TrEMBL record:
Keyword line: DNA-binding, Repressor, Transcription, Transcription regulation
Protein name as catalogued: LysR family transcriptional regulator
Domain of life of the source: Bacteria
Gene3D superfamilies: Periplasmic binding protein-like II, Winged helix-like DNA-binding domain superfamily/Winged helix DNA-binding domain
Entry keyword annotation includes Transcription: yes
Length: 297
């Protein structure tokens, strides 16, 4: 028994006439009659009582009509569900983020936009340190990561898309002598205990530039993969934190922010994912995020 046999049978049952059913199905009447006859032969008995003017269902035909309608409805439901999955309208997107990605606004804007266009897709978000995001993606624990650009994102299996670029600012306690200056220079950071993100390793541009400019007077006192920890260390007076500009939105008692006059020092936020992405929902998210970035939204 094939699905087309059920469709043919339902059409004849609903029309009560082979000619009208053939027109509805856009096939010739002899071919329809042959298919119905083949179905009856396979099932072992008549499904219709044929008269000169119309056809009526037998008791077996009445039963088959109910079952055939259920089967065809389920097939249509399955077809639509699979088509939606193919378009990425359903499925799951797991997003990992470094803490400062929240304050950039890019990730939140992407998530809200995707929720509006794909309301039936499941979104899971979790905070993951920058150095752990590549491993989490390759291990299949997350699909997408928002992270400061760092040396771990150079893995050939990882796709990297630019998500934002901001100036570097200094966060420091309000009673620090440098807090009296509205603008700081790199040279003013000499011998100061600095607070950096773990992502700013020795190969990362910010660390390289500071080491070149300050030489032996470059002093990293603390590192952390947590945005709140970086800011808390600075607010406690334990060091000067180098942070991306969007973090100045965070209001912490005793903490102030100052501009850093160093155009070569910037904070790059990137979105990382698998180079070969099998998930349609994830692919739809990536395409949407890339499009919004290209259009400046």
């Amino acid at each position: 028994m094939e699905l087309r046999h059920l469709r043919y049978f339902v059409a004849v049952a609903e029309e009560g006439h082979f000619g009208r059913a053939a027109e509805r199905l856009n096939i010739v009447q002899p071919a329809l009659s042959m298919q119905i006859k083949a179905l009856e032969t396979e099932l072992g008995g008549p499904l219709f009582i044929r008269t000169s003017r119309r056809v009526e269902l037998t008791e077996a035909g009445i039963l088959l009509l109910a079952e055939a309608r259920l089967t065809l409805e389920q097939v249509e439901h399955t077809r639509l569900a699979v088509e939606r999955a193919m378009r990425g309208e359903t499925g799951r997107v797991r997003v990992g983020f470094a803490g400062n990605a929240i304050f950039s606004g890019k990730m939140i804007a992407d998530l809200r936009r995707f929720r509006k266009t794909h309301p039936d897709a499941e979104i899971i978000i979790q905070e993951i340190a920058p150095q752990q995001q590549v491993e989490a993606i390759l291990a299949g624990r997350i699909d997408i990561g928002y992270t400061p650009d760092n040396s771990t994102t150079t893995d050939p299996q990882i796709r990297v898309q630019q998500a934002g670029n901001w100036e570097i600012m200094i966060a420091l306690c309000d009673d620090h002598p440098l807090a009296a200056h509205p603008h700081l220079t790199v040279e003013m950071l000499a011998d100061e205990p600095l607070v950096l993100y773990d992502a700013h390793d020795t190969h990362e541009n910010l660390t390289v530039v500071l080491a070149r400019r300050l030489g032996e007077r470059f002093h990293v006192a603390h590192r952390s993969n947590s945005t709140l920890s970086v800011l808390a260390i600075a607010a406690a007076g334990l060091g000067l934190a180098l942070i991306p500009a969007p973090l100045q939105q965070v209001n912490i008692p005793g903490l102030v922010y100052r501009n850093l006059n160093a155009q070569e020092l910037t904070a790059n936020l990137v979105m990382i994912s698998r180079m070969q992405e099998p998930g349609n929902a994830v692919s739809a998210y990536l395409a949407m995020a890339a499009s919004s970035m290209a259009n400046g939204v």
